[in-house]
Amino acid sequence: MRSVLLAAGAALLGVAQSLNVLMTNDDGFGTANIRELYKQMSALGHNCYIVASVTDQSDVGGRVEFTTSPKLLVDGEWGIVKAGAPSLGTDPNDSHIWYYNGTPATQVLVALDYVLPTFANFDIPDLVISGPNFGWELGPFLYTISGTVGATYAAIERGIPAIAFASGNDVPIPYYWVNATTTVGLQDPATITARLAASFIQSMIDKAAGSRVLPKGYGITINLPHITSYTSDECTNPPFVLSRMAGNMSTDKAMYDSSTGLFNYESGGVPAMRQCRNGNCSLPGEVDVLTSGCKSSVTVFTLDYDISDNRVCVNITDLTAVTLDEHAEHSGHFGSDFEHHTRCLFVVLK
Ligand SMILES: *[C@@H]1O[C@H](CO)[C@@H](O)[C@H](O)[C@H]1NC(C)=O
Ligand SMILES: *[C@@H]1O[C@H](CO)[C@@H](O)[C@H](O)[C@H]1NC(C)=O
Ligand SMILES: *[C@@H]1O[C@H](CO)[C@@H](O)[C@H](O)[C@H]1NC(C)=O
Ligand SMILES: *[C@@H]1O[C@H](CO)[C@@H](O)[C@H](O)[C@H]1NC(C)=O
Ligand SMILES: *[C@@H]1O[C@H](CO)[C@@H](O)[C@H](O)[C@H]1NC(C)=O
């Protein structure tokens, strides 16, 4: 019944492609943003599965961690599933919504290698969507730390296009706190955030016209502004601005407290590297986009982390001092050839 209704809805909207979509996040499977985006993407006619953490798993980057307990030792977030339930299972009300007790990158692996091939009508999703996160993930420092983004590169490494979303509304709420209207008569910020995300994704799908949404190795990270619809319509329809990750950015600072002997962090306390090496250096940094008003940043990234600038010579003379394990496959030859041919990591081209 469900798929018939969805197909009819898709036909009315004139949607050509119905994609198989895996959705995840780092705030957990019961939070409002992912559930609202799941509703919007399903309403657009896509076949969506959520596989996301049973608890909040923020700030763990791309770490993979499988639980060692077959059952949950504590209640899942918001008490949606209780202690004693299996470590992997479905939402009580929706068989397309799964939770697993692990980090966000782990969700992608569990989904691709077990949940989807076993329980869905497809094995490999056409697209992985992560988020929208509650709270921004701006700049390379947060790209590395964010569990939301960590889930995307787990997918991109498997050749699957992936898009991460983050929102300036940074207090996670459960899905059942989303109201049809706020006290000022506007949609809930989670609904608006999801609508903006879904419209971006759908325009990418339309543009791809049946081929991959993104080339292999590429991903997109999008930061949406703080949606003001709890109190006003001041920021409810932000434009998307093409941006770059390495712009005017900062990193955290370690703050030593001599009274406790402990450290804490000062968020964004240090200006960071502002060197443009890859991509279009004329694009604005995503920090500047988000701090300059009601706009969303759209940054395209690739997992080819190797430097693209072939004019730079990085000397590697110290490598000759490295003793290579002769039994390790390839390493002996690699070392001697390397030393013999060049001391530069890149050939300097004219
Ligand atoms: C499942 O749906 C029912 C009825 O809509 C609702 O009362 C209940 O709270 C839902 N359960 C969860 C865990 O959300
Ligand atoms: C939704 O409305 C209920 C009252 O009906 C309120 O308690 C709740 O805080 C509202 N949710 C949000 C996110 O404002
Ligand atoms: C960099 O960002 C900081 C904080 O947002 C701002 O005060 C400063 O003006 C920015 N610098 C440039 C060069 O844009
Ligand atoms: C680089 O970005 C600038 C600013 O958005 C734009 O005008 C220009 O066309 C871009 N260049 C390329 C090669 O995409
Ligand atoms: C690398 O070593 C060469 C020769 O010793 C030297 O001329 C060159 O400046 C060095 N390059 C860098 C980037 O340090």
UniProtKB/TrEMBL annotation:
Q: Which organism is it from?
A: Apodospora peruviana
- Which family is it part of? Belongs to the SurE nucleotidase family.
What is this protein identified as? 5'/3'-nucleotidase sure
Specify whether Nucleotide-binding is a keyword of the entry.
no
Q: Which UniProt keywords apply?
A: Hydrolase, Metal-binding, Signal
Signal peptide positions on this chain: 1-18
**Domain (Survival protein SurE-like phosphatase/nucleotidase): residue spans on this chain:** 21-229
The record, for InterPro entries, names:
SurE, SurE-like_Pase/nucleotidase, SurE-like_sf
From the Swiss-Prot or TrEMBL record, what is one GO molecular function term?
metal ion binding
